[in-house]
Design goal:
- This protein has helices at residues 24-37, 91-96, 136-152, 207-254, 262-294, 301-309, 316-357; strands spanning 5-10, 12-16, 21-23, 41-47, 58-60, 82-88, 108-115, 120-126, 158-162, 170-176, 184-189, 195-201.
- It is of the alpha+beta class.
- The strands form three sheets. It has an eight-stranded mixed β-sheet with strand order 4-6-7-8-1-10-12-11, sandwiched between helices. A two-stranded antiparallel sheet has the order 2-9.
- Helix 4 packs antiparallel against helix 5, helix 4 runs parallel beside helix 6 (301-309) and helix 5 (262-294) runs antiparallel to helix 7.
- The chain is globular, with a radius of gyration of 29 Å.
């Protein structure tokens, strides 16, 4: 048995295509059938707690759901679902997919997909590489592109989805350590490209047992990391709607068509106030959720904090002030217009009265 294991981390999901109407049982049957239809895949195992799910339950996916790859929802979400299989990717196919065999020094890979409380986490393990001078993070890309290509050949309501960054920006290595008191210890060597994470285990367990122990303790941390990433994507899409409305307001002001577009302008301003209010509310709630969830992170807090720090601080306050300013200016324009019209109307009526009585 190998004393060292190399693996990469990603986020793969066997989702349902938009507009799909099926049942939980049909979903599992279809997933099993699809994986079996790919000759390079073997040792397929799909585990979940059947007593927790009604396999006859209907599952309907909105026609507007974009999937997690494009900021859509995670459908279906099956907590504690475990999917594992081995993939044989010959050297020739590795090169066809744009990768050098020297990155992996093997043609065999094991895929473990675990659905955590937060998001699914994929572990791509290199099986029996010729030596340990490998790039397991690149194996995530290789397997990702292989599965995309193979799934595109099959007509099915199941959609292979990926959430970035896949690969996670680190290469993971498990190896036997010396004088390790705990079951394992983690060392992170930061680098410009991909960090190197070395996980050392003690003499009481072997590499396979160490991997199992490590995943048990860290999968939820990776799942939380990917949920943060997905939240960033969803938030950005919501902000793009706000930006689009702002651009429309600016165009109206630039073209000096305030009065002509009175109703359209009011509609846009109302939408902006509503969207900004919901946006700020979601941000406040999610920040509280993040702080609460962070308490359970013990091993990879460095990556969680970095992901949180890289979240964009959207200028909601400035946008709200801009909308108020615009609304005040708009109101002044309409007051002035109404005054002019009233004055003109009053003058016209006065002239008519004078003419009539003369």
């Amino acid at each position: 048995m190998d004393s060292k294991i190399a693996f990469g981390v990603g986020c793969f999901h066997f989702g349902l295509k938009a507009g799909t109407n099926t049942t939980m049982g049909e979903y599992f049957n279809e997933l099993q059938k699809m994986l079996e239809s790919i000759s390079n895949i073997s040792e397929i195992d799909i585990e979940f707690y059947e007593e927790d799910y009604d396999l006859s339950e209907d599952v309907f996916i909105s026609p507007n759901n974009r999937g997690i790859s494009n900021g859509g929802t995670l459908e279906p979400y099956i907590e504690d679902l475990k999917i594992s299989f081995d993939i044989f990717i010959p050297k020739r196919i590795q090169e066809d997919l744009g990768h050098s065999h020297s990155f992996f020094k093997t043609e065999r890979f094991r895929v473990l997909i675990n659905y955590t409380y937060y998001f699914p986490v994929s572990i791509i393990q290199l099986l029996e590489p010729l030596n340990n001078d490998v790039l397991p993070s690149s194996a995530v890309i290789l397997v990702r592109e292989f599965l995309r290509k193979e799934f595109s050949k099959v007509k099915s309501f199941i959609d292979f989805q990926v959430l970035g960054p896949s690969p996670f920006h680190a290469d993971f290595f498990i190896e036997k350590g010396e004088q390790i008191q705990r079951p394992f210890s983690i060392s992170i060597a930061q680098a410009k490209g991909y960090d190197q994470v070395v996980i050392s285990y003690n003499d009481h367990i072997n590499a396979a047992e160490a991997l199992e122990e490590i995943l048990f303790e860290t999968l939820s941390e990776f799942g939380f990391f990917y949920q943060l990433n997905h939240s960033n994507s969803v938030t950005h899409r919501k902000w793009m709607v706000i930006e689009s409305n702002l651009d429309t307001l600016v165009e109206i002001k630039k073209n000096r068509k305030h009065f002509k577009n009175f109703f359209e302008t009011n509609k846009i301003i109302n939408e902006l106030f509503i969207n900004i209010s919901y946006f700020e509310k979601d941000q406040i709630i999610y920040k509280s959720y993040i702080q609460k969830s962070k308490r359970s992170i013990t091993h990879f807090i460095f990556y969680i904090d970095r992901e949180i720090d890289e979240r964009i601080n959207y200028p909601t306050k400035q946008v709200t002030e801009f909308i108020k300013l615009y609304e005040n200016q708009k109101l002044n324009v309409y007051v002035m217009s109404a005054t002019v019209i009233a004055a003109v109307s009053g003058g016209l009526i006065g002239a008519l009265i004078t003419t009539f009585f003369n």
